Structure formats: structure tokens, C-alpha cells
């Protein structure tokens, strides 16, 4: 059984719309990203996300329905890829998106889906909406208006005309009309007089592939008590003039001018539909327009396929008739999928293959005022590290948030490399200086006002340094500080009430007064014993002396000793903490007895104690008490020597410790620091080899990886020049930075300016090998060039490139280790090299399709050197390594090559060949088995056998999936278990039955799981993670999709399979979705051949995690429905562990 959950949600924007959704007279922007709707408000700083909703279908259409009579705001029409539609509105009372009309199913298996994009149009009079989702079919939906309501009221009784019947402005029942035009490129309602019939212009392609324009009028007869509604589109005008073959868009011109514009590749035409006159002018340079948006009655914004924006304006004569038009170039932006004009020159540029942008149009140009990151389409990706291995040894629980995934994103001019990490980001503001061996740091307030800090105390192994910050950020290091000791290491420093500063060092405790600049109180332990740990609040200071003596001091009363107790040599104390609020207790950790104890400050008696594990195996080091969750008890964090963190809930009423939890962060003990979050709550920053931020969200404690290299120590530093910042010490320097308060997706971008078709990562060279395809427009002619490029991992910049030949394109890139000799000890030495597969763009009349396999190495100057070149009789679609052999997927075969090295020359010799049914597009190698993605014929497993006794090597098909599947990617995810994706967004898990009774059983790949992901997967990257007993699933692969999603794929551990399936079914029954779309239909396998009723042995992690945000009563009902003796807290813990995976 399989499990899938998103790491990064779809970011591609194909549809967007402006409407007054939240408030009357206040515009908002709704953006569709695959199956997610995001609602943005326009602020002075740009777009601000107000809310979002997941839809159980992929959004294909959006439309604004002006506020019906029963609603103060506009309604949103949503059409989906399942050929359904529904309407939404905003519920002001609950501040949630509400379903106004549940989904209406228009699916018709006897009709052929439109080859063009689905379209939704509303006639200018607001009387009808039409949907174009099938070829030759138009669905007409009347919009209820007063005259219809009046007629309907005359035939209905008062009991029937209830509040549930459609109100004025809402949608009526759909009716189907047929037309002759099958391939409609564009359509538009023309502006007509108020009482005239709606007129629809169709830009279509006829049987001879000629582009034509036709106008039809809509005739509609409403339903009566005895007959159903009827709609037809009657042909009115056929324009005999053949149009530009590249004509792509119709733009209706509003009244009083009327008519329409036709956008072509070489010209733009204006047609006056009243007089049938045409005004045509050629473009200065040929281009292909992809989107348009109306600015006013005479001006439109246009976007072309190369990311250029233009202003189109109609030129009028003295009689206010259209005389001509002119077009002005504004500048380059992302290649637009949709344009939305928001007013005052502000325009949203939604993009599928680049970042979406908010621009402000000025005089002849525009400026970008906001960028919404987009990593779609993900053509390829590589996993740099999983963040959980040191020398390949497993150290802690897997979290993809600690993995760095680098994607090949975008297309052509918008092509980029994107480094994606789902975690907590740290933005560096400045470097204070190079400093080594920093052991801790604290922020202090000496002379600043409010809550601002102005002094940073930094301690080292044998000294303490103090840095003073001015209001404008100037930094000065102080030679002396209030008479405090700077010649030794500091264990604790903090502000006390009444302008006092506390410092605890290994030898003494001092309190200084900021007004007098002098030390006012001093205390030292007797017998020259060392202080090993300390913790304080505004009233008390608790010290650990000599590792075994606990002392409590009164910081309000001249450091008087309140209590002191020697716990003995056999009860060493490793750490201590006191609550921030005055509470008469402290908490100490005892490593020798493997326990943590709550003690009274008055006499240091043990009030409560908790065992942390087996004595001699569990060693607590430091402790920290912090308020993490609003309205909940404080949480006690315990740092363990093995790199784990244990937590307890601390009950203030009786000082008890309950609800033990444990999580492994790394292999070394974490160090804790509290970071204020606001409202009396804190985040906890844990520094170890994998820094983590611990914070509260939705009533749960979240552990999230921090995307910071080498953060060794940290402290909150809210300086006036750097508000809300932190001070971060690494092994080399000290920085001022800003840390996120919770996990987000961190994206670093390297612009390439070309499609990054393939990417591979070399750990030894610390570089990426990438294959690019660049497209430029020169004098109206499109020029395509391809390169293999080397890019630096750390600086994320280009190092070198290799130009391919004319009409040659990169198809695949892999990295492998080549043996280069032996060292002095006789050990094999290897070096990373890149292997590149290419294909030629041959002329159509040339039957031979050609390609090359190239081998490159990186020299000491980080330059590319070509080692070998092998021509192949076919495009090289994919490459992989089988031991020291190269496996190449060519045009209609899979070939294994031997690598032959003679001195400095490298050659490839063909060893074995396997003929595929159609075309191999992806391969995955495990051991001597090759998994082959056969374009139309699903997946085959091919075994490589080395020749012996004079026989040649061979490739033999040992198993196959006997179904027609248009495969896009494959991956080997477990022993005899494979994952494949298809072009319609499905995921299929296949299993090879090696122990089958018959030969046919052994040759047939069985389907063990299948579901509709709803997004086409371009690349599957398997990962090797050990099975974890604390988590119900084992991660097996990452998936990169065309819409910019990155998914984690996992196999469910056997003991949890039945429970998770029942839990998914229960949650789906309780959790609502926009339009009340059913979950099972959304995730059920669906292609052109077959449609299932529900997902088969697949669990949707996104749905499972919605359990955490359900109301407690709903959670109880769901758990009761699941049965099996499960409890709500146990289910929460399981789901929280699943969520930590991504």
C-alpha cells in the first residue's frame, strides 16, 4: 500500500480572476494553482493571501457572477477537469469560503473532450453563460434575471418557489447545444443592443486546416411545466476571408465601438461586425500572442510567447470610428498564462513557466512590484542530500524538510535552477566579524528604550566580549562593561528589573547597575568550586556547583543564598531551568540516574521525578521550560546526549510532568534557546548538526529543519536597527539575521534564461551538470540552441558550458564515478564524470533520427573537458549506470555499452540490446534489472546477463505490465516493486511476482496500488531510507510534476495499512470540500480507457493531515468510526509524525 503527500504545492498559475468576493466595492484576486484556489487582497505593498481552499478536482475555468440578490458580494464560478462546475461565496460570519451551488456534472462519455483549452464566457448582457468543454458542443447556462423569475413565479405555487430556488443573478439549469465547428481556437461574445440576441464569434479551424471566423446567435427557450429548455446557435455570418494561420485570439471590442480584434502571428485585424469592414495591419515582427486583458474601451494589454508585454490601442478618426491601431512594446516579463488588470496601472501576470508577477504600468514601460515564486514546470530534479546521513550512517528520523532538492524549472527565457527546502529560513542581514570558538551569546538592554536590545555579550572558551549597537546599526566593541568580568567564559547573562544586569561565570555571580556603571553584588562558591550550569528569572538564580551541588540565590536581595544541597558524586546534575514566571520550583537533569526532577526552591526537595530511560543508556544534558502552545501548559524540553529531545507537559497547578514525547534531531546533543513569538509564547531554537526550530501550530508542537549552514549558537536580538532579528554564531563568524517563525518553503534561484531540460549533481565536484535549450527570436525567425553547462553548488552560479551542434538538443544527463587509478595504498581512485545524451532535429524528409552520447570530466580549474563522443542511431532519451556499464534508451531500443579506457581515450562498445514496443522514455536500474518506461505500453522489467563461454551479453524481458499506459516516468522503489506515472496524472504501483506458480504469473506485473494524483509527474527520484518504527510509512521517492508540485511517496508499513485506509475513508466522509466534490472520485484512477470508483490501496497524506484541524468533537466521531480501540491523542501523534516527514 502506498502513501503520498505534498512537500511543495503546485505553484503554476493558469487561471486568475478579479472580483468583489470579500466585500462590496473592494476587489480581490483569485488564483487557481492546479486543484487549489488562493484568494488575495490588494494592499499598498502588493498582494496579500487572505485565504485558500483545496478543491477535489483540477481547476480549469473561473468566472465572476455579479452579486445575486441574496448576496452582498460576487459569487465565484469554478469549472473542473472532471467536467463539473460549482459556485462559491464568502461567508462573512464564519470567515470561510462557502459552497453556494454543489457541483453539477456535465460529463458525457460519448463526446470528445476539446483539444483546446476549456472556455467559460458570459454574454455582455449578463443573461447567459456558455461552457466549451467538448468538441462541437456548447453548454448554455441561463443566468436568472427578473423576467425569468417573473415567468417562473407565474407557473409555480408559493410553496414550490422557496428560498432554495435560484435567485436573480444565480445560475439556472444547463442545456446543451451543438455546432458544426469542432476545433475552435477562440470564441467571444460580441457586444449587442440590450434586447438583441447574444452573438457568439468563433475562430475555428476547418477540415482543410484553414482558419475561419463565424458568428452565431444564441436562441434560447426557457423550460416550462411541459417541456425542457432548448438552446441553439444559429449561423449569422461567415467571413469568407481566410485568416492568418497563426490567428489565436478573438478580443471583443465593447460598445460604443463594437466589433472584434483578431490576434495573429503576423498581423492584427479589426472587424466591424455591423458593417463587415476589416482593418488589417502587419506586425513589425512576427510573434505568437498567448494572453490579453482589457484595460479600457480602447486599450488592451497583450503578452506573447517570449515573455514580452505590449500595449494595443485603437486609433479613432474624427467620427469616433476605428481608423487603425497601434502597438507599443512595454518590456519583458514572465511568459504569461493569464493577465488580470486590477486598476490604476496594476496588472497581475500569472505564469505557468515562470514566476507570477504584479506589475505597475507607467509611461511606456512597467515595474515589477511583487513576485510570486513558481517552480513549474519541473522538467527534472536532483536530491543533493537528505540531511540525515553522516558518512552514510543513519543518525535521526527522516524529514524531507532537511533535504535539499534542486529542480530544473521553467521554460525558455524563464528557465531556472531552483534550490527548494521546506523548512525554517534564516535571512542574513550582516556579518559582525570572523570569530571562532563561540560558546554562547546573550542580548542585553543597557541604554535603549522600549523592548529594544543594544548590547550583545559573546562568550568564548576563556574570555567574554561585548558589542554595543547604536540606533543606526553602528557597532562598537567595548573594552570594559559595567565592571563585569570579561576575562573568563560566561555561563549566563540577563537583564533584571530596575536597570540591573546579571552575569554568571565559572567562578562567580555578579550584578551590575546600568545607571552607576558599577558592580553592586557579587557571590562566589566556597572552596573555589566551579559553576557548571545556571538558570534565572526576575526573582531567583539557580546554580549547579561542581556538578553535584544545587544552590538557590535571591537576585532581589543582594544574592542571598536561599537553599543549598549537595546531591553527592553519584547524583551529578547536568542542567537546570527555572520558569520565567515566578514559580517556587526548579527542574534539574540527573544523567547518572537517567531522570529529571522537579524541586522546591525553598529547600530543594524533590517534588516529582520522571525516568528518561535505562540507567547507563539515557543521559540528559540540558533542560528548558517554555510556553509553546497558547492556552496550554508549558513544555519541558530535555536535551539528550544521543541527539534526541524528550518533552513533558509541565502542570503549574501541582508541578507534575506528563505526556512524554521523544524525537531524534541528530547525533549530538542539542542546545536550546528561546525566541519570543509574541503573546507570551516562544519558539525554541535547537542547535546541533541539524538545527531545528520548535514551535506550536494548530495545538501541536512542530519540529522543523532550519535551512542554515553551521548555526552553532543563537540568541534573540531585537535591536532598534535590526528589529526582530537574532544573533547567530557559526564555527567561523558571528552574524545578525532574521529567522522565520515557522516552516515555509525556501527557494533559491539561479536564472538560466533557457529551458533546463536535465540536471545531475556531483557531490565530489560540488557542482551541477545541466542540459539547457535556449530559444531566441531574431528578425522574426526562431533560433534554438542547446548547451551542457556546469554550475556551482554553493554560489549557485555558472562555471563553464559546452555548446552542442546546430539542431542538436540535450535529452538526458547523468553523473557517474569512473575509476582513474590507484593511490599509494593500492586503493581504487574514482572521479565523477557527466554523461550526456542528445538528439538531432532532423528535417522531416530525413528518415534517420540521430543523436550522440558525450562524456565530460571537470578539470582542476572547474572547466569541462570532453573525454568521449559516440554517435548513436537514434535520439538518446535516457541514460543510467549498470555497474561500470552505460545503459542508454534510444529511439526504439535499450542498449548496454561497455566503457573501454585506453590511456587517455575513452570509447563505448555495444554489449547488448533490447527492442521496445514503442519508444523508451525513462529507465531505472537496480542491480542487473533495468526498468523501462515504454511510451505507450506501460513498463517492462529487463534483465541484463553477462555472456560466458563465448556467448555475448544479453538483455531479456522478464516481466511486463500488460496495459496501455502513456508512461511519463518510472522508479524502482523496493525489491520487485515499481512506481510509474502516466500522462493523465495517475500513479501506479507495480509488483513483480517472482514466486508465481506459472510462467505467466511471474511475467505479469501486478497493480498493487493506483490513484489519480491530478498532476503529470515528469520525474521520479527514488530514495533509500531505513524503515522507522516511530512512523507509519517508509519514504521511497520524491516526485516532480508539471504544475510545480513536489511529492513525497512512501510505502505504508504492514501493521498500519488497514488503519490508515479506514482513517482516510472516515475523514473523507466528514471533511467538506468546495462544491461538495467527492474525495473518492477525485483520487480514483482515471484515463481515456478506464475510470475507477475510488483510489485503490492508496492513502492521500494531505487528507489524513486535515484530521489535525478538525474540531475535537469531529475528531472523536472520526476515531469512533475507525474503531480498533484507537484514541484521539494516539491518532494525532501518528499523523503528526507523518507530517514531520515533509
Automatic annotation (TrEMBL):
Chain ranges of the RSE1/DDB1/CPSF1 C-terminal domain: 786-1108
Q: Which GO terms describe its biological process?
A: mRNA processing
Keyword vocabulary terms for this entry? mRNA processing, Nucleus
Q: Does the keyword Nucleus apply?
A: yes
Q: What is its main location?
A: nucleus
Please report which protein family the annotation says this sequence is part of: Belongs to the DDB1 family.
What protein am I looking at?
DNA damage-binding protein 1
Amino acid at each position: 500500500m502506498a502513501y503520498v503527500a505534498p512537500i511543495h504545492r503546485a505553484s503554476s498559475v493558469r487561471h486568475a480572476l478579479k472580483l468583489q468576493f470579500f466585500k462590496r466595492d473592494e476587489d480581490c484576486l483569485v488564483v487557481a494553482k492546479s486543484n487549489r484556489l488562493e484568494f488575495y487582497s490588494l494592499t499598498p505593498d502588493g498582494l496579500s493571501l487572505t485565504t485558500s481552499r483545496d478543491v477535489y478536482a483540477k481547476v480549469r475555468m473561473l468566472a465572476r457572477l455579479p452579486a445575486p440578490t441574496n448576496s452582498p458580494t460576487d459569487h465565484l464560478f469554478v469549472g473542473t477537469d472532471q467536467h463539473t462546475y460549482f459556485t462559491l461565496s464568502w461567508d462573512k460570519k464564519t470567515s470561510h469560503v462557502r459552497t453556494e451551488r454543489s457541483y453539477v456534472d456535465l460529463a458525457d462519455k460519448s463526446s470528445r473532450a476539446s483539444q483546446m483549452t476549456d472556455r467559460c464566457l458570459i454574454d455582455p448582457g449578463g443573461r447567459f453563460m456558455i461552457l466549451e468543454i467538448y468538441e462541437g458542443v456548447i453548454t448554455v447556462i441561463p443566468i436568472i434575471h427578473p423576467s425569468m423569475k417573473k415567468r417562473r413565479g407565474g407557473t409555480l405555487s408559493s410553496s414550490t418557489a422557496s428560498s432554495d430556488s435560484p435567485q436573480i443573478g444565480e445560475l439556472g439549469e444547463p442545456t446543451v447545444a451543438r455546432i458544426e465547428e469542432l476545433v475552435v481556437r477562440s470564441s467571444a461574445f460580441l457586444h449587442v443592443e440590450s434586447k438583441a440576441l447574444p452573438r457568439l464569434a468563433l475562430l475555428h479551424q476547418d477540415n482543410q486546416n484553414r482558419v475561419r471566423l463565424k458568428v452565431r446567435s444564441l436562441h434560447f427557450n426557457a423550460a416550462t411545466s411541459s417541456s425542457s429548455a432548448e438552446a441553439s446557435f444559429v449561423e449569422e455570418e461567415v467571413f469568407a476571408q481566410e485568416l492568418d494561420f497563426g490567428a489565436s485570439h478573438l478580443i471583443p471590442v465593447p460598445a460604443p465601438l463594437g466589433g472584434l480584434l483578431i490576434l495573429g502571428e503576423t498581423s492584427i485585424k479589426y472587424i466591424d461586425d455591423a458593417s463587415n469592414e476589416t482593418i488589417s495591419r502587419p506586425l513589425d515582427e512576427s510573434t505568437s500572442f498567448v494572453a490579453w486583458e482589457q484595460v479600457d474601451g480602447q486599450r488592451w494589454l497583450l503578452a506573447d510567447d517570449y515573455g514580452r508585454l505590449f500595449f494595443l490601442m485603437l486609433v479613432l478618426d474624427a467620427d469616433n470610428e476605428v481608423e487603425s491601431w497601434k502597438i507599443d512594446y512595454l518590456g519583458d516579463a514572465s511568459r504569461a498564462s493569464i493577465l488580470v488588470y486590477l486598476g490604476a496601472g496594476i496588472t497581475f501576470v500569472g505564469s505557468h513557466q515562470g514566476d507570477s508577477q504584479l506589475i505597475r504600468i507607467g509611461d511606456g514601460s512597467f515595474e515589477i512590484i511583487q513576485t510570486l515564486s513558481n517552480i513549474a514546470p519541473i522538467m527534472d530534479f536532483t536530491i543533493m542530500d537528505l540531511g540525515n546521513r553522516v558518512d552514510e550512517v543513519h543518525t535521526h528520523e527522516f524529514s524531507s524538510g532537511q533535504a535539499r532538492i534542486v529542480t530544473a524549472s521553467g521554460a525558455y527565457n524563464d528557465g531556472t535552477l531552483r534550490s527548494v527546502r521546506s523548512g525554517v529560513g534564516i535571512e542574513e542581514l550582516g556579518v559582525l566579524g570572523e570569530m571562532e570558538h563561540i560558546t554562547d551569546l546573550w542580548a542585553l538592554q543597557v541604554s535603549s528604550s522600549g523592548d529594544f536590545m543594544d548590547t550583545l555579550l559573546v562568550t568564548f572558551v576563556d574570555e567574554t566580549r561585548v558589542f554595543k549597537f547604536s540606533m543606526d546599526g553602528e557597532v562598537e566593541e567595548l573594552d570594559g562593561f559595567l565592571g563585569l568580568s570579561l576575562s573568563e567564559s560566561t555561563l549566563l547573562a540577563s537583564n533584571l528589573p530596575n536597570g540591573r544586569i546579571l552575569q554568571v561565570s565559572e567562578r562567580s555571580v555578579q550584578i551590575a547597575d546600568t545607571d552607576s556603571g558599577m558592580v553592586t553584588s557579587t557571590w562566589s562558591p566556597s572552596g573555589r568550586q566551579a559553576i557548571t550550569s545556571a538558570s534565572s528569572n526576575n526573582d531567583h538564580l539557580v546554580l549547579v556547583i561542581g556538578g553535584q551541588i544545587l544552590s538557590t540565590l535571591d537576585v532581589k536581595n543582594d544574592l542571598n543564598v536561599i537553599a543549598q544541597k549537595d546531591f553527592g558524586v553519584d547524583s551529578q546534575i547536568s542542567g537546570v531551568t527555572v520558569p520565567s514566571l515566578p514559580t517556587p520550583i526548579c527542574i534539574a537533569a540527573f544523567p547518572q540516574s537517567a531522570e529529571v526532577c522537579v524541586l522546591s526552591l525553598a529547600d530543594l526537595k524533590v517534588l516529582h521525578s520522571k525516568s528518561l530511560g535505562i540507567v547507563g543508556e539515557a543521559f540528559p544534558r540540558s533542560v528548558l521550560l517554555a510556553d509553546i502552545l497558547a492556552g496550554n501548559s508549558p513544555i519541558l524540553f530535555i536535551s539528550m546526549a544521543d541527539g534526541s529531545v524528550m518533552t513533558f507537559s509541565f502542570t503549574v497547578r501541582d508541578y507534575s510532568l506528563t505526556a512524554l514525547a521523544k524525537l531524534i534531531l541528530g547525533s549530538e546533543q542539542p542546545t536550546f534557546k528561546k525566541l519570543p513569538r509574541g503573546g507570551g509564547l516562544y519558539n525554541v531554537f535547537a542547535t546541533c548538526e541539524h538545527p531545528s526550530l520548535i514551535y506550536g501550530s494548530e495545538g501541536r508542537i512542530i519540529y522543523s529543519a532550519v535551512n542554515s549552514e553551521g548555526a552553532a549558537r543563537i540568541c534573540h536580538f531585537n535591536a532598534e536597527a535590526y528589529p526582530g532579528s537574532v544573533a547567530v554564531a557559526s564555527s567561523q563568524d558571528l552574524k545578525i539575521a532574521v529567522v522565520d517563525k515557522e516552516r515555509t518553503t525556501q527557494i533559491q534561484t539561479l536564472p538560466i534564461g533557457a529551458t533546463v531540460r536535465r540536471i545531475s549533481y556531483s557531490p565530489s565536484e560540488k557542482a551541477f551538470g545541466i542540459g539547457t535549450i535556449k530559444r531566441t527570436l531574431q528578425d522574426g525567425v526562431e533560433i534554438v540552441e542547446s548547451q551542457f553547462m556546469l554550475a556551482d553548488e554553493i554560489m549557485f552560479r555558472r562555471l563553464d558550458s559546452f555548446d552542442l551542434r546546430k539542431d542538436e538538443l540535450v535529452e538526458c544527463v547523468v553523473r557517474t564515478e569512473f575509476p582513474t587509478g590507484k593511490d599509494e595504498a593500492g586503493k581504487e581512485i574514482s572521479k565523477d564524470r557527466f554523461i550526456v545524451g542528445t538528439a538531432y532535429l532532423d528535417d522531416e524528409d530525413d528518415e534517420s533520427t540521430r543523436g550522440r552520447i558525450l562524456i565530460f570530466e571537470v578539470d582542476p580549474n572547474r572547466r569541462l573537458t570532453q573525454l568521449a563522443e559516440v554517435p548513436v542511431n537514434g535520439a538518446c532519451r535516457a541514460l543510467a549506470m549498470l555497474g561500470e556499464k552505460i545503459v542508454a534508451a534510444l529511439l526504439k531500443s535499450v542498449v548496454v555499452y561497455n566503457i573501454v579506457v585506453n590511456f587517455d581515450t575513452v570509447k563505448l562498445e555495444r554489449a547488448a540490446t533490447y527492442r521496445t514496443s514503442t519508444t523508451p522514455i525513462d529507465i531505472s536500474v537496480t542491480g542487473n534489472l533495468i526498468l523501462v518506461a515504454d511510451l505507450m505500453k506501460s513498463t517492462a522489467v529487463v534483465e541484463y546477463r553477462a555472456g560466458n563461454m563465448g556467448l555475448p551479453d544479453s538483455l531479456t524481458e522478464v516481466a511486463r505490465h500488460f496495459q496501455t499506459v502513456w508512461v511519463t516516468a518510472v522508479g524502482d522503489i523496493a525489491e520487485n516493486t515499481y512506481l510509474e506515472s502516466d500522462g493523465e496524472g495517475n500513479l501506479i504501483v507495480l509488483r513483480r511476482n517472482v514466486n508465481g506458480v506459472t510462467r505467466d504469473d511471474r511475467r505479469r506485473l501486478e497493480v498493487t496500488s493506483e490513484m489519480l494524483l491530478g498532476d503529470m509527474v515528469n520525474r521520479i527520484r527514488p530514495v533509500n531510507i531505513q524503515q522507522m518504527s516511530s512512523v507509519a510509512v517508509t519514504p521511497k521517492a520524491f516526485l516532480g510534476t508539471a504544475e510545480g508540485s513536489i511529492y513525497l511517496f512512501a510505502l505504508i508499513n504492514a501493521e498500519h495499512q488497514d488503519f490508515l485506509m479506514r482513517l482516510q475513508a472516515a475523514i473523507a466522509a466528514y471533511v467538506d470540500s468546495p462544491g461538495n466534490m467527492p474525495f473518492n472520485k477525485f483520487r480514483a484512477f482515471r484515463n481515456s480507457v478506464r475510470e475507477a470508483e475510488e483510489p485503490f490501496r492508496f492513502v492521500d497524506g494531505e487528507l489524513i493531515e486535515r484530521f489535525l484541524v478538525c474540531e475535537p468533537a469531529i475528531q472523536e466521531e472520526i476515531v469512533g468510526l475507525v474503531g480498533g480501540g484507537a484514541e484521539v491523542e494516539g491518532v494525532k501523534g501518528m499523523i503528526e509524525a507523518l507530517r514531520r516527514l515533509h
